[in-house]
Structure formats: C-alpha cells, structure tokens
Amino acid sequence: MNLDCPLPHTEDEVVLLGHGAGGRLTAELLDTLVLPALGGPPGGPLEDAALLPGSAELVVSTDSFVVSPLAFPGGDIGSLAVHGTVNDLAMRGALPVALTLAVIAEEGLPLSELRAVLTSAGKAAHDAGVPVITGDTKVVGRGAADRLFLNTTGIGRRIPGLEPSAARARPGDAVLLSGPIGLHGTAVLSTREGLGFETDIASDTRPLHRLVQAIAPYGADVHTLRDPTRGGLAASLNEIARDSAVSVEIDENALPVPPAVASACDLLGLDPLTVANEGCMVAFVDPAAADGVLAALRSLPEGADALCIGEAGTSPEGRVVLRTLVGARRIVDMPLGEQLPRIC
Fold first, then answer.
1. pLDDT digits over 105-150, tens only?
2. Is this model's pTM higher than 0.85 or not?
3. What gap in Å lies between CA 217 and CA 159, rounded to an integer?
4. In the predicted model, what is the mean pLDDT of the chain?
5. Rounded to an integer, what distance in angstroms lies between the CA atom of residue 85 and that of residue 92?
6. Torsion over CA: 15, 243, 246, 249 (sign)
7. 122/198 Cα distance (integer angstroms)
8. Which residue, among 172, 169, 304, 180, has the nearest Cα to 254 in the 3D structure?
9. Residues 336, 250: Cα–Cα separation, whole Å
10. Helix (H, G, I), strand (E, B), or coil: what is residue 156?
11. What share of the chain is helix, strand, coil (3-state, %, to 5)?
C-alpha cells in the first residue's frame, strides 16, 4: 500500500456571488439552507413582500443594498434603497406607510459621501410620500465592508380589492410591461467599468406605487405584479410561470430595449432580458382588462411607455418562451447566477 498517495481533497461549499443574483443559485440557497434554517417551507411562492401575521392589509418587506459604485447616472445607493423597498411593497398592492433605514459604513468613508447618500435617500422618501421613522448606524473597520451598505424595511397598507401574487397568474392573461428594460444594470456597469455609455444610459430607479394605485380600480383583474430587478425580466417571468403553473410567451418585437442598452449588451455579451431594472414592472392581467390597465399606466409619466409584450398559456407549465424577430421560438431560462454583480 502506498502511504504517500494523497487523499482526495474536497472543499467545503461556500457562498458565491451568484447566490445573491436572483437566479437559480439564489433559489437553491433559499430552498436548501435559508428557509429550512428559519422554519419556512421550501418550494412555495416567494413574494416581494409579505402580509404581517394576523393582518389582511399590512405588508412588510426588507432589503439590503450593496451597489458599486455608490452613485451612477440617474441615482445613487440612497435613492435606490428607498425606491427598491417602496416598489417591493407596491408589487403586493400596498402603498408605503413607513420606512426604516440602517447604515453600515466602512471606516474611512468620506463624510461628504455619506451625507450625499443620506440626503438623496431623504429626498426620495419625501418625494414618495413615506417617512423614515427609525434606523441604525454601524461602522466597521477598513476592509470589513466595501464603503457603504444600506438596509431598508418598509411597512405598507394594501389597497382594498388589490391582491396581486406571483401565484395568481392565469392562462390567457395579458403580460404588460410599464417601460423600457435594461437601463439600471447597464448604467451601473458602464459607470463602474468606465465603458463610456454614461451619457446615453441612466438608471430607471424610481418609485412605482403610484402606477399600482392607478390600476387599483381593476382590482381582481390584476393578478400578478413584479418589478424585474435582480435577474431581470427573465428571472421575474420564470418565477411567475413556476409559481402560477402557467407558460409565458413574449414577443421580441414588442420588447422595449433602448438602442443604447442594446449596444451595451451586444458589446458585453449580455442578454437585456437578464439585466436588472429598478423602475419598471411587469403585470399579468385579465385580457378583458388589458386595454384599461394600459391606459391607466400610460396616464402617468413613469408608465408612459407601457405596452403588452405577450400572454400566459397552459403548456408547458413553468416555461417562458420568446418569439424571435424571425418568427422562431427560444426558451428563456432562469438565469443561473450573477452576470452583473453589485448592482442593487
């Protein structure tokens, strides 16, 4: 026996950047580690926000923001934190009531940058009509964080009659989109890497609760709302198709991809469908109500470019398909991991 032969070496599993990307690796982490550890059942629909136990109208959501760089065309980590949490509440049909804001700052961060970020967050909250009522501040040593992380929690109150859920999409639903896709992810990446697209692309970060309020009169006809942030439109559509047990078919001719975003994605080898957004939402609505919902969305500046991009079907369940420009069909998979790290 050769005692000099090395034993097989296996490394412990570790957290990867892709585990935070909102794709298949995130779902795997949640189902196999996070939910079992916290006593939650794996495999169920994971919403952007949850009803508080014992309440039929109060909704809560929490989120952390680790974007790099801290400022980018169209916004910064402060406004992004407010908008992201307001939007998560809105996707459950809720208007924001109050926010919390926690700061984790790295030693050495210039106070001028911290002041600018917090001023931006305060302005975003004021513009959204929601107060920041409490928070926390922590400082960690140099190298223990990347300059600045923010965490926000939001409490919202559901609009009566509006109960959207990722599990409520139905066959025949019209799939509506409130605006262009790909702006946020490409704006952040272009700034971070100095790619020169900054003059053509700005993040779409903005609150969406007023859009949701505008379509509230359609009540039960609004089945599902989702803002396609991490993982982009591809991840959101796959999550809805899975949780609602429907198929989804979208039309490439209808997809609103700005020319500058298309150019950036071509250069970087990215699919605009998987690039993060921070100021648009996808809605699954009863086809009889689609025209009215579109008109309501288009009545506000943030929904002026709303359009129908496809429809839900019955088979095969959980599959998302794109009708291409040449009339072919290709499957739109759930993204595996992180194409653009540190963007939200």
1. 999 999 999 999 999 999 999 999 999 999 999 999 999 999 999 9
2. yes
3. 10
4. 92
5. 12
6. negative
7. 25
8. 180
9. 20
10. strand
11. 35, 25, 40
Tokens 């288009």 sit on residue: 298
52-81 pLDDT per residue, tens: 999 889 999 999 999 999 999 999 999 999
Residues 323/249, Cβ–Cβ less than 8 Å: yes
pLDDT of 318 higher than 90: yes
CA 10 to CA 142: how far, in whole Å?
32
Tokens of 44: 């169920």
Do 186 and 245 touch, CB atoms closer than 8 A?
Answer: no
CA–CA distance from 109 to each of 23, 30, 100, 135 (Å)? 32, 33, 22, 19
Per-residue pLDDT, 338: 62
Return d(Cα 124, Cα 86) in angstroms, integer: 10
| Structure-token match 């040593």, residue found | 141
| One-letter amino acid for residue 29 of the chain | L
Residue 49, both tokens: 């926000």
Euclidean distance between CA atoms 31 and 42, whole angstroms: 5
Instruction: Quote the tokens at residue 199.
Output: 């003059």
Q: Which two tokens stand for residue 127?
A: 């513009």
DSSP 8-state assignment for residue 30: I
The CA distance from 286 to 26, in Å, is 30
